[in-house]
Amino acid sequence: MTSAGNLATYNFAYLDEQTKRMIRRAILKAIAIPGYQVPFASREMPMPYGWGTGGVQVTASILGPDDTLKVIDQGADDTTNAVSIRAFFQKVANVKVTTKTGEATVIQTRHRIPEEPLTEGQVLVYQVPIPEPLRFLEPRETETRKMHALEEYGLMHVKLYEDIARNGHIATTYAYPVKVGERYVMDPSPIPKFDNPKMHRSQALQLFGAGREKRIYAIPPHTEVVSLDFEDYPFEIQKFEKPCALCGAENVYLDEVVLDDKGGRMFVCSDTDHCEDRRNAGHVGELGVAQTEAAE
Amino acid sequence: MNSQPLLKVSDLSKFYGGRIGCTKVSFDLWPGEVLAIVGESGSGKTTLLNCVSTRLTADVGSVEYRMRDGQFRNLATMAEAERRFLMRTDWGFVHQNPADGLRMTVSAGANVGERLMAIGDRHYGQIRETAGDWLSRVEIGLDRIDDQPRAFSGGMRQRLQIARNLVTAPRLVFMDEPTGGLDVSVQARLLDLIRGLVQDLGLAAIVVTHDLAVARLLSHRMMVMKDGQVIEHGLTDRVLDDPREPYTQLLVSSILQV
Fold it and tell me: How high is the ipTM of this complex?
């Protein structure tokens, strides 16, 4: 493939073709075994670990010249991480970029799943810091691998038991463990547990890349994803008392924004694209300004 | 008692390179029986225990275990998944150092409940109730159920480890110096507790100890090991009161009589 514009020294999408081939093979294996962590030879990327090197490598490997890319960080399209990764791919792959969930073919995300339901043909790429759900309970990699292989997942419930014993309810709010396709227990990356139900039987392909830990895993479309729980303490998602202060949306994930140093705060959609769409459609929250007025 | 042994060990040997870990050990263990393995440090007691409990792979010989369906199975040829399942349901392993056998960073209740959750228990209330029940059986107050074992004394940790192992009603328990590192009065209470539990539950146990008093109190039979070999084997009272081998005589006479 030819490289983009004046950056003749870079291959299309930064990675060389052999590396992409290696990563694609890992991705294919991951899709074939939903929830299984496939080791891969993670490369050094021109950004530090923790900034999404895993997600970027996965995106670089699946991106084609006709793709439209959207990058979100905590639901927002305009935060540092999202902006710089989007600029990176514009530069090295010259692909179309968008902030609209519906228009994107590849969405790289950190910590959120868009509110708008994903459709067939879309790919959601997660940035994963620690792929191993059992890591904080069992530090030995040899042992956790064996536990996955033999389907010994009692330990995962020990963590939930501890939660209830200490807090009276399951207090894990993000990176909430799920069982994929009735087989592998998987860490869904640090998305809020609010987003867990969106993974269940999603029409989109979901890929997870952990650069530092050198693991890729996947949930193919229409795969069963069940959040772990106890019979007497069933899985629940977060609930918000108020709707979004800007667009009035209910049943969406909200961020708390501090307004002043006198205790003033508001709750707004964490998915900025979704919020914008709603405001353009004329929805107004209690602190929002109607779009038509603002234009005038 | 059943007419068939629970465990058949034949001709078991383990070598560490040119050195002998233990060699040519054979014995049967019957349901409800407590067997003590005694000997000085380095005599191969722990190696033998680890080989029998499949924590180490023996170089020669076989260990056969009678499963709940009455069939004898060779542990070395059993699939790993099945062996690990056996280890956490039908067996228990009490380590000398409780930190090896406990999860120090999760609460006592979760420590006891872990095995239940591992075999598919998914009801928090029931798990907690069972855990509480077992804590009181090993004399740990219910108010400590949410404390982490690192807040426990040595004796309490050891009792918690025992509760954690017994919660799935195992038939065979391995103990490696269960009273090592505890002071005498705590030792006495722990021994009392173990003896009571073993009797109530009809457990079979293999206890490794260098303390002949522990062997005397707990075990029905004992084996004396030296340099990796079993040199004397018999009923506990017989071996301690009428030792035949010179080494056993030395061992018995060098320890305060009980």
Answer: 0.85
